[in-house]
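Review form for a predicted model. The reviewer records the input and the model, then writes brief findings.
Reviewer: anonymous (R2)
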Amino acid sequence: MKKKVAIVTGAGQGIGQAIAMAFAMKKYHVLVADINPITGNSVVDTICDKGESALFIKTDVSKVEELEAMIHKTYNQFGRIDVLVNNAGISAFGDPFLLDEATWDKIIDTNLKGVFFASRTVAHYMKSTGGAIVNIASTRALMSEPNSEAYAASKGGILALTHALAASFAPYKIMVNAIAPGWIETGDYSSLKASDHEQHFASRVGKPDDIARACLFLSDRENNFITGTQLVIDGGMTRKMQYED
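Model under review:
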């Protein structure tokens, strides 16, 4: 049997890198899609150094033609696509009275439009075989700080898009789910303060591997009764009431 194939967007660093590594360690061919060739190729090198298979394709997910070309190349290279993880995203926070149209469009195009067109293109190849699509949203789709309007809108849109696509793709046995990560530290974990960890029921801030393991779970065909839903992974942070002393 051919090895399974997973596409991970925004896989050059952080959560995306952890997701790509997790699928590689499960013996998937991994397509690392990222806008940055330096970080993207570095992830591929790390995977290959471990004896597994990966390929990098430079991709700006806000540009539909680049997304479609990347997915077509992946299928032509490997002959199948089993999993798509729509992880790529950007953020920009600022006064909503000063938010310009170009910034709004860039965030929505990258975080939301790219998810739809990548999912639709992949679904063409999954129609006869089934598959799994996992969209990375955010707990900011469910709660907010000031000055996060464009980012919150894009991530809230992902949650709605997820159940809409799950309905449309159901006849083809394509599972579509979303993960809403909370505080996932992608920098120096050791620099976090005790008060940072104490904001969570889990008594710790999250790590990229926490999200990667969930992607593996939602991509497992044996879990095909899970579709059209969202999985909040935040150590209980959004459920913990906070009071000032």
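Findings: The mean pLDDT is 96.
Further findings: The two ends are 60 Å apart (CA to CA).
Recommendation: see findings above.
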